[in-house]
Please model this.
Amino acid sequence: VCLFFKKIVIFLLYMNNQNLIIFNFKSLYVILKELEEHLNFKIVESPNVKNLNDKIENSKNYLIILQKKINNIDNQFVLNNFPIKISKLIEKINIQSLKLQFNEKSEFKISKYKIDLNSRELIGKNDKLKLTEKEANIIVYLSRSSESVSVDQLQFDVWGHRSTLETHTVETHIYRLRKKIFKKFNDNNFILSHKNGYKIN
Model:
């Protein structure tokens, strides 16, 4: 269990400037609190709904992790499906975090396109391209970096694990994604391949 939560932390490093409110989830709170000084967000514990409402009122940017959804409260990430693959958990946190960062809009601009996280579509001027969940996550992840992203980074942060995934699996996904984009939009420069990784143009 400890290893499970520590792997969550690795991805949460990307959630800059957020309050992470742990609601009625003591074991998770204890682990994250121990690591708080190394993280870029504040860990807050909330034991009941009244306390949670108080925390929310005093937080401008927050994400609540809890085991059961509470009605009429925003920005919740329900963590109740055990066991769960780390890769799937990270993808879910990734999408939730991105929705918050873009003011809870599911559609936002990336380069000359728009991406819709709900329908998983890359939208051009006159056409749309259907994406897999992994393809959407790759594009979104690359869009968050101004520098080239290495295969190792993509392997760890998008797939959620390092040792069991072959490097060529990441490269194959990127190759196929670039090919799909070229076929639909005649654009070979949206995702650029550099010596040290990949970058959104």
